[in-house]
Amino acid sequence: MKFPRQRQEEVNVNLTPLIDVVFLLLIFFMVSTTFTKETHLEVDLPEANGDKTVSEQQILEIVITDEGHYSVNGKPLVNTQAETLRRALKELSKGDLEQPLIITADARTPHQAVITAMDVSGQLGFDKLSITTREPEQE
Prior knowledge:
Layout: H1 16-32, E1 43-44, E2 60-64, E3 70-72, E4 75-76, H2 82-93, E5 101-105, H3 111-124, E6 129-131
Parallel strand pairs: 1-6, 2-5, 5-6
Antiparallel strand pairs: 2-3, 3-4
Helix pairs in contact: 2-3
């Protein structure tokens, strides 16, 4: 008597559902991850049409020319290096980091000069930072 041979099926593992689950987990963790803040510098940009307010508190003002030269409270700095700006801010603030800091830059100022001023003030610990604007001209 001859028995028919049973065919042995090949054992396959289907990886498609496994890959789908791994990608879903990856997307879930990417979306739910909280990113740390590198700096805690708060920038308070005034509205262009907002009211003008005058404060009695001592204010530090950094003025940046269209060529990227700095002056702090009306005193021009000798160069455009970040360390010079840092020393001037330390000297004029006398350690009071609660006073407001205003950055006034020309419209044609290089972007790097403004970023350098913001970076130096953030590293020193100033957290009340404003950037001045002007009201748009009425047509």
